[in-house]
Design brief:
By secondary structure, this protein is of the alpha/beta class. Helix content is about 40%, strand content about 15%. The protein has eleven helices and eight strands. The protein has helices at about 5-25, 60-70, 80-85, 110-130, 145-155, 160-165, 190-200, 210-215, 220-230, 255-265, 280-290; strands at about 45-50, 75, 90-95, 135, 170-175, 205-210, 230-235, 270. It has an eight-stranded parallel beta sheet. Strand 2, helix 3 and strand 3 (about 90-95) form a beta-alpha-beta unit. Helix 9 (about 220-230) packs parallel to helix 10 (about 255-265).
Length: about 290
C-alpha cells in the first residue's frame, strides 16, 4: 500500500456508494432505538462496528442504529467524537488517533519520537474517558527484514507500555494483509505479531486479529484462534473476497468462527468491518450481527 492509501482513502471510495443512502430517506433509519439492553443479544459476543465503514452516516445516526441492533461499541473513533458515543451509552471499543498512519509505524525507529509523543498524550485520555483499547500499527517493511522490525518495534513500544499499564490501557497492533490491501505491511502474519507479544511480555499489548486480513495472508482461522487466543485482544470481520458482507456470498463461515472465539472465553469485542454493498446497509449490518451472535 502506498503511504497515501489509508483507511481515509477507503472511506472516500465508499462515500460515493453510500451517497444515495445519505441523501435519500432510509426506512431503517426511521426505526426507533430499543431501550432494552443488548437488544436480546445472547451475551456470548460483545458486538461492535467500525466507524469508517459507515462513514456515509453521521456518527449520531450510526449510534442510533447500533443501539437498536444491540451493538455495544464503535471502533476507530477518536477523542473529538467520544462525547457522541457517551450520549448513546456506547463504548469506544477500539480508540484511534495516536498513530501516524498505517504505513509509518513502530518497526522504523525514525518514527519513534513522534509515536511515543502521540501515545504518551493519548493513553491518559483514553483511560480518563473510561476506555481500554488503543490501536497501533507495525508500519511497512520498506526493505526491512522481520527480525529488525521486531527489535525496532520492541524498542519503541517499551517506551509507552509502562504508561499503558499504569492507566489500564491495552495497545493493540492490527494484523493486516500485505497481499491485497496493504502491500508491504510488516505485521501481516499472526506468527510475527505473536513473537512481538512474547518479547514484550505484558498483557497490555495484544494483537487486533482481523479475520478478513488473516484469511487472505494465512488462512486456518479457527485453529489460529484456538491455539493463540491469549495474544488476540480484539477481532474484526469482513467477507472474503471483496471485504463486503459476511454472508453466503463469501468463503468464511462466521457462525463457526464466532463459536471458536466464544469457546476461548474471550470477553473483548468483535467489530464488523465489512464495507456494505447491499442496498439497505443498516439491514446488512443487523444481519451480520445476528449471524455472529452465537
Amino acid at each position: 500500500m502506498k503511504p497515501e492509501n489509508t483507511r481515509r482513502d477507503a472511506m472516500k471510495k465508499i462515500l460515493a456508494a453510500g451517497a444515495g443512502v445519505a441523501l435519500s430517506p432510509i426506512s431503517s433509519l426511521a426505526s426507533g432505538c430499543s431501550d432494552k439492553p443488548d437488544n436480546l443479544m445472547k451475551g456470548n459476543i460483545n458486538h461492535a462496528v467500525c466507524r469508517w465503514t459507515y462513514s456515509f452516516l453521521s456518527l449520531d445516526e450510526l449510534c442510533r442504529q447500533a443501539k437498536d441492533i444491540g451493538i455495544k461499541g464503535i471502533d476507530l473513533v477518536g477523542p473529538k467524537e467520544w462525547d457522541v458515543l457517551k450520549k448513546y451509552g456506547l463504548d469506544s471499543s477500539m480508540c484511534n488517533g495516536a498513530e501516524i498512519n498505517l504505513v509509518h509505524g513502530f518497526n522504523h525507529t525514525e518514527y519513534h519520537d513522534t509515536l511515543v509523543k502521540n501515545y504518551t498524550e493519548m493513553i491518559p485520555m483514553v483511560a480518563k474517558a473510561g476506555y481500554k483499547n488503543l490501536i497501533c500499527f507495525s508500519g511497512n517493511r520498506d526493505g526491512m527484514d522481520d527480525e529488525t522490525g521486531l527489535k525496532n518495534s520492541v524498542e519503541g513500544l517499551k517506551k509507552i507500555l509502562p504508561l499503558a499499564e499504569k492507566h489500564g490501557v491495552t495497545i493493540q497492533m492490527e494484523l493486516l494483509n500485505s497481499r491485497v490491501d496493504h502491500k508491504d505491511y510488516m505485521c501481516d502474519r499472526s506468527a510475527w505479531g505473536i513473537e512481538l507479544c512474547k518479547r514484550l511480555q505484558t498483557p497490555h499489548f495484544k494483537l487486533l486479529y482481523d479475520i478478513y486480513h488473516m484469511q487472505i495472508d494465512e488462512g486456518d482461522i479457527m485453529r489460529s484462534i484456538q491455539n493463540n487466543h491469549q495474544y488476540f485482544g480484539h477481532y474484526h470481520t469482513g467477507g472474503n473476497p471483496g471485504r463486503h458482507e459476511i454472508d453466503e456470498s463469501q468463503e468464511l463461515y462466521y457462525p463457526a468462527i464466532m463459536k471458536a472465539i466464544a469457546a476461548t472465553g474471550f470477553k473483548g469485542y468483535v467489530a464488523q468491518e465489512f464495507i456494505p454493498a447491499a442496498a439497505d446497509k443498516i439491514a446488512s449490518l443487523r444481519k451480520a450481527v445476528q449471524l455472529c451472535d452465537v
